[in-house]
């Protein structure tokens, strides 16, 4: 066991004892403190948060669940995407410059290149490898795109169609759905050669495919990575990659089916998912009102799920009414929290107070390459999602108490400090609950 994990587990034992004590006796006292700090009963304020307040209202999921956070809706314009400030021209990036593709090209370390192969194809963890293998089934272009049906069915009411599209995605088991205006910079400039090609040919990008599509709308959906599994895990043990791929494969299947349905209606639609992206998911999620950029760099946190999700998207010209981006106070919160940076085993997340310019927009200066190196070469499991596990926005339980906490956290910097303190006091995020550990570890493969 690493020193990092050992220290974290000792810390956790202390937190768990304190948690039992506090949960038994201190909840009501804390509630009084909350009311004092904010000046209103959380339950009253939260009651006013329920109901769809953004875009078309789904019939199957009429009450958007922000987990108690106070959410404000913001306009899209040239200076802002949601709460991310645009300070220059945002260039479309090459998909081969992202994450594991970059490692497989040999641009990081020889070990990261070799272990990325082990991780993806040979199967560092047999269960996770089975999940990853499945996303290959939905990878071909013929699954993701194609020509629409020759007859365009009339869409007299785009709002009703937006409601219907959200209902379709929820029916197909999405946990959160949004519709956004598609920013032109949210497309990759080129699709990467396949990872198989990159393994064989290293840094030869001659098989890259230019991305020429420009659609007005993007439909994005999140699938939860599973609360109990996250509570039972360190965040970087055997199940870590499996958690990601549980949500990647499920959101990918939704994207493929929904894009195919829209093409059957006579409109253009393309599925974008983990094994076939033309669109960059971060800006698509923000444009669709599903989250804000966080301290972890380009990762988007949702007010209830945090980053305990993976997503996929459909770009389309179906007439729709887009949602607005949201602001739940994450920029202020990340400025004071730094919990992910404290807990990142790869040392990838910045402790800076403020975001810096990156490719024409402001984001925290987190080193995604260090993250990729850690995830591919992790000797204590398969990949990593420790930042996802510890983030206070990742709902730890379904209770008024947690909802009150997130409500406080969305109220500005002072209240952010209060939520961070409550989160640490209860040991949230760093705890590991043994009864939820259902998967097998295969340390001989790590
Ligand atoms: S752990 Fe804290 S600093 Fe990190 S992303 Fe979550 S809220 Fe922001
Ligand atoms: S996934 Fe792990 S290594 Fe990467 S930033 Fe998050 S905590 Fe750090």
From TrEMBL:
Its cofactor is [4Fe-4S] cluster; corrinoid. Keywords: 4Fe-4S, Cell membrane, Iron, Iron-sulfur, Membrane, Metal-binding, Repeat, Signal, Transmembrane, Transmembrane helix. Residues 324-354 form the 4Fe-4S ferredoxin-type domain. The keyword Chaperone does not apply. The keyword Protein transport does not apply. It is found in: Cell membrane. The chain crosses the membrane at residues 21-41. This is 3-chloro-4-hydroxyphenylacetate reductive dehalogenase. It comes from Dehalobacter restrictus (strain DSM 9455 / PER-K23).
